[in-house]
Every structure is written in structure tokens, then in C-alpha cells.
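Two proteins, back to back. First:
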Amino acid sequence: MKKLDSIYEAFLSAIDEDLRGMCEENGKAELPLPCPYCGEKNVERLAKSLVGVLEERSPDSPGLVPEQYRADVHEARELLTAATLALLPLYFPPRDSRIGSVATVVSMFRHGRTAGFKSAGVLLFEEVATGMKYSTKQGAYIPSSFVRHTDGRKPCDRLHRDGSRGFTADEDDAVMFYKRYLKVQRRVFDTSPRFNFELCVKRPFEALLDERHTFYYMEEKMEIDLTNKVHGLEDRYLLNIKQHKDYDLLDKLMIHALLAYLGDTTVSTAARESYLAQAERLIGHATKSPRSAQFNEDDGADRIA
């Protein structure tokens, strides 16, 4: 059985019977989610269950999410999932209300160095919140073609007194959940603008796509690669200490400082990568235990014989 099928089965097992029935009613989608829209409370329940299954089966990489941001990351995951679960049945065809579509939408979010940066995910939800869509061909915003299936209303037709358009959080559940997500995202951004909050939020959703190489942006792949390298260096250093490798006091202090710096995800990837080689040089190669070394010598003698 594919891993995605296994995750979906775990998700179905985690939700109530009434919600399972709503999923089954959507016969037009593969691994379906409820369609038509099932309401705010049901969406919240679905989001909590899906995030719970993903976090259990696709745990965060060691060192990727700092301790002080774990609660914010978890809350943001649930809110962004709820926003997506509301958006799909309200504005997209029933075939798109499937578990893989959640990962597709989440993958569109991307960290920016400035508060005004807008990723494809942000622009998608802003279509509902502003009634306007950015056209790359025209280089300008044009009226969105979104139509809400529950009542046939268009966010571009909702005109406010100040001349703006779109549905507010009081008028649309997708906007409401998305605005709540933005509050968490902005709270973290104001504290640490360089911290890649969006990558930490989206990481477990990778398991919902078969072609995972399309899930991340290039800088996100670099961040994950660096995190894995640092974790490997930490493991190697601890193994060497356990095997009584002789580090002098100055080297130990330098290694501890470098590992702390390399593991600080609030620092830019480029800045941390510049110190990676120095940490590798100080830690050195993994030291083998006397017992494993003896095994290698014996194996060599056997091969020679």
C-alpha cells in the first residue's frame, strides 16, 4: 500500500463517522474530502485531525523548528489547513476536493524577507479577500473569476464603502481561517523576520504528494539540506565523544559555538553555510570503536586470504 493511501486511511480513522460520510459523498475525487462545503465547525475538526495524522507520521526534522516557535507552527498548520479545506469546496470543482490538493495549496506558500512579500499562496487567498487576481500577462490586478458555489456570489462583486472589493472574514470561512493564520504568521515574522516560518509550517504536508520534488522552492531545499547536514555533524560529534576521540578544550568550545550557530534557523542559510566547512574540519571523521575496527581488520584479512 502506498504511503499516501496509508495516511488517508489514518485520517479517515481519526475523524467521526459523520465526517467520513461527507468524504465518501464526494465521489468525483481521488482520496476525497467533503464537497459540497460542510461548514466552519466541521472544517475545524477535519483540519485538526489531518494535521494530527501528518505530524505523527511525518515528524519535523530535528533542529528545523526552534522550541519557541513550535506552538505557533502547530497552530498555523491547523489554520492554514482549515482555510484550504474551506477554499477548495467553496471555489473549486468537486474533483479538487481531495487530500492531495491540500498539499498543493500549502506548497504555494513561501517565506519572504519583507512583510509585503506575496507568495502564490497569499495571492490565491487574496483573490477571495480582495476580489482581484494578479495577471502576469497584464502586470496588474484584474477582477477575479471566483464564484462561491454555496450562493453563486462573486468576491469581485462585493463592493465596500471605501471602494475595495472581496469577502471579509465575517462573510467567508476561507477568508476567516486565512486571516487567523496571517495573525500567527505576522506575530512570528515581527519577532524574527529571517526565520523560515512557512517552510516549517508546510513540511509535514510533503507526504501528501507523490512527486515531492515539486513541493519545495529551491531555497527551501537548501534550508532542508543544510539542516540535515548540521544534524549529521551533531551526531558525528556526539559519536566521537562517546568513542573518546581526543578534542582539546578550545576545539570543543569552537565546535559547540559553531553547531549552535549552524542550527539557528533564524540566521540566513548563506551565512550559516559559510561556517559549515570549518565545523566539519574541527569535528573530523567519525571515530570507529575498537571493536568495529577489529571487525574491519578481520574482514580485510579474510579478503586477502
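And the second protein:
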Amino acid sequence: MTGPTQPETPALAAATAMFVEVLVIGIGALTAATLLLIALIGPATTAKLAPVAGSSAAAGAGLAAAYALGILIDRAADAALTPHRRRLRTRFFASNAAYAQARLRLADVPVLAARADYARSRMRICRGWTFNTLLLTLTADLAMLRYSFEHRPLILCTITVLGLATTFGFYRSWRALTETGYRKLAEQTTTPTASPPVPAQTQPGSVSS
């Protein structure tokens, strides 16, 4: 009698990693949406809704909303950066078919495939957070404008500068990870060229002409 079928660990790990990626991106998007809501309803209404936000039902709804927003931001960021990504890919692959064949060859080497998946995971997070930090900067500025406090212009300027710098940092990280991923894929899947023939060595005792 055969034992129970074992779960497909690699597939389960990949699904878990994808869920975490989307959730990490979605948390940022949900925070930006919350800041926008605070900016729209004002301080008084925000204070009234604060106790509701701490309930278990709100936490569950927030988790679901974060996941849904994560999918939305991930797709939007991918669509916006696709032209740039394709330009980077043409540096290492002449066509889409060549890139697809390289991906298939890499899949035959589990260790390299796992490393490539990890690199793509980091790339997707940086891609999503490029948009998240831009949204967070805008919504944080809008929310701050609804409150009266000391040194507001300085705080607004600080938030804006730090937000734009972080956005640029995530974009540069995405670009570097994407370019490095294509370069490594090309290097790891290129068929090595034949070695040049070794010249025949002169036999001992032979006389040169």
C-alpha cells in the first residue's frame, strides 16, 4: 500500500512567496488609500472612525483590501514599466523567442532557477513600491494639509523630498535588478563556444626547417 501523496513543496513555496509579495505591495497601497481618506474626511471624522479601525472586522477587511490593492498596483506598475523593461531585455536577447528559450533552459537547473525566482521577487517588490512611495508622498502631503500644527511647511517639504528620493531609489533598484537578471540569464544559458584547436607541439628530437 502506497503512502499518502506528498505536497509539491516547490509549488507551495512559490505560491506563498507570490502571496507575500502581493501583500507587501498592497500594504503600502492601503496606507496611501487610508491617508487619502483622512485628507478627504478631515480630522473630526477621522477621530470618530478611529475606534472602528482597531476592530477585528476592520483588520480582516484591511488584509483583504491590501491583497486586492497589491494585485492592482503590481499590474499597473508592470504595465507602466513594460516598455523600459523590454528595452533592457533587448540588450541581452534579440527576440522574445530567445528569451523564452533561455527561461526554459534555466528551469532545467533547479539551483539557478531558484536564485532567479528570488531575484524576480525582489524586482517585483521594488517595482510595486516605486508606485507606492509616489502615492504615499502625495497622499501624506494632502493629509498634512488638513491638520494645523507647528512647522507644517518644513514637515511637508521634508516628506516630499524624502518621498521622491525613496521613489527614485526603488526605481533604480528595480532597474538594476532587472538588468542584472537578464544579464545572468544570458550568461547561464548561453551554449559555450567550441574551444580553439590546440596547436601541435613539436616532438622531441625533431628538426625545425
